[in-house]
Amino acid sequence: MAHHADAKRALDERGYKGQLVRGDNPLKLFEKPVRDRIVDSYYWKEQCFGLNAATLLDRATELSFVGGTYGVAQRPTPFLCLAFKLLQIVPDKEIILFYLEQEEYKYLRVLAAFYIRLAWEKDEEVYATLEPYLTDSRKLKRRTREGWALTYVDDFIDDLLLKSRVCATTLPKINPRLFLEDEDRLEPRISALGGELEELDGEDEEEDESNGEVEEVNGPVNGREHEADGSDEEMVGG
Amino acid sequence: MADHKGAYGASSSNDTSFRKTWDRSEYAAKAADRDQKIKEEGKARYQATLEGKKYHRRASTPEDTKDTEARSARLNVADKVGKTQIIVAGAGQGKRGKSAGFYCEACDLTYKDNLQFVEHLNSRQHLVATGESGEVRRAALEEVKDRFEYLKRKREEEKAREVVDLTSRIEVARDQEEREREEKRRKRNEKRRKTKDGLGVQEIKVENDGVIC
Ligand SMILES: [Zn+2]
């Protein structure tokens, strides 16, 4: 099904006839203030108008950083705008997988990962599809609210699976991996590092014992975690 | 003019064969389609009323419209940057006719800045004027793959060109340096030949020449 170039139409709650994600208009996965900033941005108006899953590649292969919103005006990054465009297009699953699996463009890969985490409804599928890329250690530039930070493809994917908020977007609830394993919906994950990781764990335990206290490593999965640099802080207003 | 021809080249003004002949089943299909549309509209109208909203009917789409496509390149606004432009009165409204600013040929409107211009290009008014439906065609996987390969190839070619560029730039720089060195030597030699002893003009150093140490 074709989509309408004018996003305002897609955002019009009366008129939305497109594909539903999680039972609702997928564009609503972004919070209203972010949506407004995206459709008001010049990048959106000039660069995102009329894109389909093929021509979107023209822009996605030119991405040079990830991020949510930045600056005092909380401008949306091209990354965020393209993610929004994907939610408007709702490309076929095989196309999203193609974006994810290709090797050449790392920003296209994480864009697809971000989309999958937002739009795919089966938790076990999200884990199974994204986890293989926890071995991709390529560097990524991240635009923060006030500047720049360095991250990696694997760290970004890790954030998607563990954090509740990434790139100015509250991620839909996902069951923790262990829960899905207990429910037999997911096989235990064999880490790419294998034995090495267990050795590291052993060392940690020794250290923990000597310190006499146990450090919480990943924090609560469903808890709200804010990043130190504040780049993913809540949007102000509504 | 003995031979009378109609404006459209028909040999006789009585010839009506250019008229579309209506097929019964086609007509029935069209009628059913129209009924369906009326039904849908009624439903949408009812839905909107339930939600306390006003229903707006979508304009029907002419059959010969083309899909709306993405811009193939960035709008060329760079050539306007830094140039003095006359700001037209009534900002936000396109000014009829071609004048200073961003001109849309299809609509014969001029906008004072690129944002208003791009908003115009995305507008219903402009899409109608250029015969576009505003619908974006869905791409299939094959097309996505083709586009990907094309972009990859393009990037590789650009990289290769950059390498060639760099190599040729180095060569040009080397040539330039060589020429400059040659020129210096020539001047030096000329200067030396001008003096009798052929040693050239000795540089005379003066102490305390005004520089405070
Ligand atoms: Zn126009």
Could you walk me through the main structural features you see in this protein, from its secondary elements to its overall organization?
Chain A: Its main location: nucleus. Chain A: Residues 196-216 have a biased composition (Acidic residues). Chain A: One of its GO terms (biological process) is mRNA splicing, via spliceosome. Chain A: This is Pre-mRNA-splicing factor 38. Chain A: It comes from Recurvomyces mirabilis. With 238 residues, chain A is mainly alpha-helical. Chain A has helices at residues 7-11, 32-40, 42-47, 56-60, 78-89, 93-101, 106-119, 123-130, 153-162, 177-182, 195-211; strands spanning 3-4, 66-67, 69-70, 75-76, 139-143, 148-152, 165-166, 169-170. A three-stranded mixed sheet of chain A has the order 2-5-6. Chain A has a two-stranded antiparallel sheet with strand order 3-4. In chain A, strand 7 (165-166) and strand 8 (169-170) form a beta hairpin. In chain A, helix 7 runs parallel beside helix 9 (153-162). Chain A is globular. The model of chain A is unreliable at 205-238 (pLDDT under 50). With 213 residues, chain B is mainly alpha-helical. In chain B, strands 1-3-2 form a three-stranded antiparallel sheet, covered by helices on one side. In chain B, a hairpin with a 4-residue loop joins strand 2 (102-104) and strand 3 (109-111). The longest helix of chain B is centred in the last third of the chain and has 54 residues, at 141-194. Chain B is elongated and about 110 Å long. Chain B starts with 23 loop residues before the first helix and ends in a 19-residue tail after the last helix. Classes of the chains: A mainly alpha (238), B mainly alpha (213). The interface between A and B is large, with 32 and 40 residues. Zinc ion is lined by residues 104, 106-107, 109, 120, 126, 129 of chain B. The site of zinc ion has 7 residues of chain B, from helix 3.
